[in-house]
Design goal:
422 residues, mainly alpha, two-stranded antiparallel sheet, 2 strands, transport, cell membrane, Cit_transptr-like_dom
């Protein structure tokens, strides 16, 4: 049974790399085989799925779609264009803007929201949008690890470590992972200044974007505030955060139906939800539960412990930079889902701080996806948008920006987490 589970798990990973557009089907098919073969008992399927995560993604994506339709992102972009003195600082500003948004909403949603603005700016300036869109994508991936609601991997980490929203800022009397991520983000600014040092053409904007509806912006900020408030309550139901996001999304839909745009806007919003990601996660939760049942996780923990040779610093280093290498080519969601229970067991085996290992994993896995165009869903989305505009992005083109950006941010986060949590 254990051998079969390992073989199926490896096949799933390979197919996810080879067939990136079919990842949801691959994960669900593997989960189904797990159930049929008894690796995951049928009566454990419902409990294996993290419904809180799925509800958070669903509700947030509804709010994001209305936020985009309200033109608030375009309004903010106009302000950025007026403030930035030249193309170099437009690129840096759009990158940081993307990162700030991504700290609170899904990375892919951030790219889908900000990249069109970047494309519009580049068309107006008559320059290639490739560099700007890549920067937007990689910055989105980086900042997604800053808060609980910024990325699926952050939500998964919070569940494994019992963390709430405020724990990402202040954890056990110490600065949280938010500051490690922000330190890495700031360190990338000089990198971008070097990469785009020749882009000194002056810019300005005479256009005035009119925001059509402020309710989505209120709901966007409101659901984040509610998540912060909920984080102060102990022993709350596990689905609390999911319910908050769902309720805010539903309120936004009701507002638009009865007081604004009618049912057409509702269907538009529901169609805009990334159902593939939700199905992918549902399948992965079942698969991970299955391999945990047959004892693979505990064995993997022991293997990694042996690799660390009893040295916590060496183990931490292997986790961070090994995660970078793996996430450069493999989606970090299944990888993080696999490693979280491993590190939980590993911290007990080595008497190490679980937070040190958890945060090291998140730093490496989240930022590692920035090395290649297939390392993260946000990168794939950004490259896809460029392809529609007639710009083909090769691995080399992407890695010219992705590699220095990633290594700089990872190194800063790696050092910060070690000195604070070791």
């Amino acid at each position: 049974m254990k051998t079969l589970a390992i073989v199926l798990f490896v096949i799933m990973y390979v197919l996810m790399v080879v067939l990136p557009k079919k990842r949801a089907y691959v994960a669900l098919s593997t989960a189904l085989i797990f159930v049929i073969t008894g690796i995951l008992p049928f009566n454990q399927v419902f409990s294996a799925i993290d419904w809180n995560v799925l509800m958070m993604i669903f509700g947030t994506m509804v709010i994001v779609d209305y936020f985009i339709e309200s033109k608030m992102p375009n309004y903010i972009a106009d302000k950025i264009l007026n403030v930035a003195p030249n193309v170099l600082w437009v690129t840096i500003s759009m990158s940081l803007f993307s990162g700030i948004i991504s700290a609170f909403i899904d990375n892919v949603a951030t790219v889908l929201m900000v990249a069109p603005v970047g494309l519009a700016i580049c068309k107006k300036l008559k320059i290639s949008p490739v560099a700007m869109i890549i920067c937007i994508a990689v910055s989105s991936n980086l900042q997604g690890a800053a808060t609980l609601v910024g990325d699926t991997t952050s939500i998964m980490l919070a569940g494994a470590a019992g963390m709430d929203f405020n724990d990402f800022f202040w954890m056990d009397g110490k600065l949280g992972i938010f500051f490690a991520v922000e330190l890495g983000a700031l360190a990338t600014v000089p990198i971008m200044m070097v990469l785009f040092r020749k882009d000194k053409e002056p810019v300005s904007s005479d256009e005035k974007t009119v925001v059509t509806d402020y309710v989505p912006t209120i709901m966007m900020l409101g659901h984040v505030v509610l998540l912060v408030i909920a984080s102060f309550f102990q022993n709350k139901p596990e689905i609390t955060n999911g319910v908050i996001c769902m309720v805010c999304g539903i309120i936004n839909i009701i507002w638009e139906i009865f007081l604004s745009k009618g049912t057409d806007s509702m269907w538009h919003s529901l169609k805009a939800i990334d159902y593939d990601t939700m199905l992918l996660l549902a399948g992965l939760f079942c698969v991970i539960s299955g391999i945990t049942n047959v004892g693979i996780i505990d064995e993997l923990a022991n293997i990694i412990a042996d690799a660390g040779k009893g040295n916590v610093f060496m183990l931490y280093t292997v986790i961070v930079f090994g995660s970078v290498a793996i996430s450069a080519f493999i989606d970090n969601i299944p990888y993080v889902a696999t490693m979280l229970p491993v590190l939980g067991s590993l911290s007990a085996v080595m008497s190490a701080s679980p937070l040190l290992l958890y945060f090291g994993l998140l730093i490496g896995a989240t930022l590692g996806g920035n090395l290649t165009p297939i390392g993260a869903s946000a990168n794939i989305a950004g490259v896809g948008m460029l392809r529609k505009e007639g710009y083909e992005v090769s691995f080399g083109d992407f890695m010219k920006i992705g590699v220095p950006f990633t290594l700089t941010a990872v190194l800063m986060g790696y050092l910060f987490i070690w000195f604070v949590y070791a």
